[in-house]
Amino acid sequence: MSDKQPTGEQALRSQVGLSAFKADWTSPAHRARRLVAEFFGVFGLTFILSGGAAVLTGYGDDGSTPPAYIVVLILSLVSALWLVAAIYFLGDISAHFNPAMTLAFALRGDMGWVMAVVYWLVQFAAATLGTLVAMWLFGDAGGLASVKPQPGMEIQAVVVEAILVFLMVLMVLGMANGPKLNGQYVPLAVGAYILAFGTMAGAFDGAAMNPARAFGPNLIAGAMDTYWVYLVGAVLGAIAAVGAARFLRGRAKAQEASAAMGNPTAG
Fold it and tell me: b/e per residue, 250-260, with b = 16+ CB within 10 A?
């Protein structure tokens, strides 16, 4: 692809025409819809995780706490199922639901940096509110699904989170930018990924794969001392995924920007 050819958001603008792009994708109404969709998606994610952890560990039949691997498996499953459902009903508007994914789209040029910053603010706020509501309803048993690396293994946890985010972001970028793009299967791929790696790494460091998902529960549970692990790991993984996507798929195409910014005429 020639360096003179537009990519990402610019490619989408060229494809639909400047007037249509300005009228639709940059309209305040569409931007507001995207932010509300992001709020619902992230709120639901931390609500189901924090609430699930509290219910599993605080409301057992005999008052006992299930084995850790059972809790990890169930929380991985319910979060995967929520993301599948949320992407299906919100994906045509906006379904990043993860600051690392937003960072990757911004680095690829699929969305502007100002909007990316607003996305991050909404995602972190939604994660915090989802956890607060779960705590109010169910209590704080199970640490509200807060995440923490094994003692003395913070660096290993950073590497694990970077790998998990790298592969997840690379998968999403590949499906958004490649010939195999098929919207109806993206939610299933994301859900399968979350279930597989959440189950594998959950007992090790919580397998957050999402700095907003880690932020809300950890903030409310008072466990921010090792939060940096999940932020650094996610940023490193997203940056590496963008580089790998450029090598594998080339520069961002219009369809990738459309996946990043949603469809203004969806309804």
Answer: ebbbbbbbbbb
Per-residue pLDDT for 63 more than 90?
no
| Domain range list for the chain | 8-261
Residue 91 has pLDDT above 50, yes or no: yes
Exposure class string for 208-244: b at 16+ Cβ within 10 A, else e: bbbbbbbbbbbbbbebeebbebbbbbbbbbbbbbbeb
Q: What is the CATH number that goes with domain 8-261? A: 1.20.1080.10
Of 51, 48, 49, 36, the C-alpha closest to 95 is 36
pLDDT at 267 over 60: no
Q: Taking every pair of C-alpha atoms in the chain, what is the biggest distance, in angstroms?
A: 67
Give the whole-angstrom CA distance, residue 139 versus residue 58: 8
- The rounded distance, in Å, linking the Cα atoms of 215 and 191 is 21
